[in-house]
Amino acid sequence: MKKVLVASVTCISIFFISSAFYQKYDLAKSIERGKEVYTTYCITCHMEAGNSTPGVYPPLAKSDYLKKPIDNLINIVLEGQTGEILVNDTTYNGQMLPLNYLTDEQVADVLNYVRNSWGNKIPVAITPEKVKALRK
Length: 136
Ligand code: HEC
What we know:
By secondary structure, this protein is mostly helical. It has helices at residues 2-21, 27-41, 43-46, 70-79, 104-114, 128-134; strands at residues 81-87, 90-96.
């Protein structure tokens, strides 16, 4: 009887531990948190509506750049971006300083927010693990 009990408890624990491990990343929550990060760290240049300052800063709203591999996007936030950049057929040549003081979670959240706001819809989550892997 005791053996059966131990076996069931073990099975149940394994089930819970593995389901926690395989839990899907909650993109909706990440986007929600990302809005706050955006308002604190990005809004001064990219504006509330993500349209930046036309002609000066490239837009995030409907930016074709956001469809690039996620490594590019994560690196822009971690390492900044200088020199020519082509966004929606317009070349910009400005400077965005690195925001590498943000946590892995903040970087993932803000990019998930940007990729799913103002008409952007790229519902593939960027995770903190991915950010961590790219951090130098
Ligand atoms: C001080 C102004 C400034 C701040 C703050 C800033 N950016 Fe930028 N961002 C720029 C500039 C300028 C460029 C283009 C740089 C160039 O011309 O090479 C850019 C480019 C980008 C791009 C790629 C181009 C595009 O339009 O899609 C992304 C994505 C981006 N920024 C996201 C962010 C996010 C997310 C934050 C906040 C975590 C942020 N930026 C904060 C100025 C800023």
